[in-house]
Amino acid sequence: MAYDSVLEKKLARKTTRAIVDFDLIEDGDRVMVGLSGGKDSWALMQILDGLRRRAPIDFSLIAVNVDSGYREYKHDTIARTCEARGWEYRIEHTSIGAIIDDKLDERSTPCSLCARLRRGVLYRIAGEVGATKIALGHHADDFIETLLLNLFFSGSLKAMPARLVSDDGRHVVIRPLVYISEEEARDYTQETGLPVIGCCCPVCGDLSLQRQRVKRLLLDLEREHAGVKQSMLKALGNVAGRHLLDRRLNPVAELRVEAAEHLDAMSVPARAPSVPS
Questions:
Q1: Quick check: 167 and 205 in contact, CB under 8 A?
Q2: How far apart are the C-alpha atoms of 136 and 146, rounded to whole Å?
Q3: Which range is most confident: 6-10, 239-243, 259-263?
Q4: Distance CA 19, CA 25 (A)
Q5: Mean of the pLDDT values across residues 159-169?
Q6: 5, 51, 85, 256: most buried, per Cβ within 10 A?
Q7: Are 54 and 47 in contact (CB under 8 A)?
Q8: Residue 67 — φ and ψ, nearest 5°?
């Protein structure tokens, strides 16, 4: 089956590489795609559907949209698009927006609370539809931005995994777009004619948020040093634990033992060569 464009072929190869590298999709999987209606989740659904038709393994897809309850949200557009493309889907109407409005004041950032609430809904639905994997549309830029956010504002050196098992062991979350940039996802969504739908959250796109500030920083860095984002993504898979300050990775007691063994080895005098009798 031929690809419709050079871009589609390129993204299919990158996604296949991620699936193989991190063991994301297996034969017999039922993959539930979190479909928000944004460019990234549309790109993910379209790419996985194309791979499903071509893959040597058998797996199924179901798109699940979590409607947060904002009046202007166009969930009907998502339903019509899924039906037109022959995709199995489910739209779950919730009151997440009202819960957030009730819990947080005007100065608070609701993104983390919203993400937790939506994740809980996705976990519940995954059990109801028999999904073995939950696929999310985080792309390479999300991985890099999360790394910097944690580094700058949380004092931790971590990003997000391509494959994550939930704390209770019941769900496996996968991120097949780990090697695909935000720009590529945007271009592909436009190329395939998928309708990008805003989430209607009152703070969506607010450039004062920390993630948006990091986006601007990375944009400037990439302009000055082409390839810097790709280098940062590569670094996430090339960790030198012995060169960090985390004592869980480098216990002081073990380091002392290693140092002592090294000194002992250096202090052992060399044996004189034996003389044959």
A1: no
A2: 15
A3: 6-10
A4: 6
A5: 95
A6: 51
A7: no
A8: -85, 115
Residue whose tokens read 């460019």: 39
Residue 92 amino acid letter: E
**Helix/strand number for the chain, H first, E second:** 10, 6
The dihedrals phi and psi of 222, each to the nearest 5 degrees, come to: -65, -35
Instruction: List Cα–Cα distances, 114 to 67, 96, 101, 135, 200, in angstroms.
Output: 12, 7, 10, 18, 13
Give the other-Cβ count within 10 Å of 265's Cβ.
Answer: 8
138, 175 contact by CB (below 8 A)? yes
**In the chain, what percentage of residues exceed pLDDT 90?**
64
Asked if 30 and 60 count as a contact pair (C-beta separation under 8 A), the reply is yes
| Strand-pair partners of 165 | 172
Percent of the chain with pLDDT over 70: 84
pLDDT digits (tens, 9 = 90+) for 114-153: 777 888 889 999 999 999 999 999 999 999 999 999 999 9
What span, in angstroms and rounded, lies between the C-alpha atoms of 1 and 112?
41
Tens-place pLDDT, residues 227-260: 999 999 999 999 999 899 998 888 877 767 767 7
pTM value?
0.85
Q: How far apart are CA 188 and CA 180, in angstroms?
A: 11
Nearest to 211 by CA among 128, 153, 255: 153
* Euclidean distance between CA atoms 75 and 67, whole angstroms: 7
Query: Hunting for tokens 């990158």 — which residue is that?
Result: 14
What length is written for the chain?
277
